[in-house]
Amino acid sequence: MKTKFLPYLGAIPPQENTMPKRASQTAVDGEPFGKRLAHLRKAAGYSQYTLADALGITNRMIAYYEGETTHPPTHLLPKLAQVLGVTTDQLLGIQKVKEVKQKDSRLWQRFSQVEKLPPAKRKQIVNLLDAFLGKS
What we know:
Oligomer: single chain
Number of helices: 7
CATH topology of the largest domain: 434 Repressor (Amino-terminal Domain)
Largest sheet: 2 strands, antiparallel
Strand order of the largest sheet: 1-2
Mean pLDDT: 79
C-alpha cells in the first residue's frame, strides 16, 4: 500500500485494518424497499400524488423513496404502513406481505369524495348504488 500525502496533514499511513462496509439487510422477498413500496402503493389503489397527499409530503418524495434510495424514511414508516394497510415489518420486508388485491384507484377516489358530501347527498348515492347492484 502506498502512503498518501496531504499538504496540510502530512503523510497518512495506509490503513490495513479497516472495517468492512456493512452489507444491506436483504428482505424476505429479496425486493428492494422502493420496489416494495411502489407495489404496495399500487395494490392499495394510490397514485404517487394521492399517497403523498395522504402522508402530507410531496409526490417527488414518494418518487424518490420508490426509485432513488435504499433507505426507508424512518419518520414516515408508521403512517405509511397505516395508509397502505400493512405492518411496518411487511413494509420493510421483514415479513412477507399477503397477496393484496389491486384496487381501482379512480373508484376509490370517487368514494372518498362521496364521504365528504352531506348526509342527505350520501344517502341518495347509496340508494342509487343499491338500485344499480340490485339490492333492496
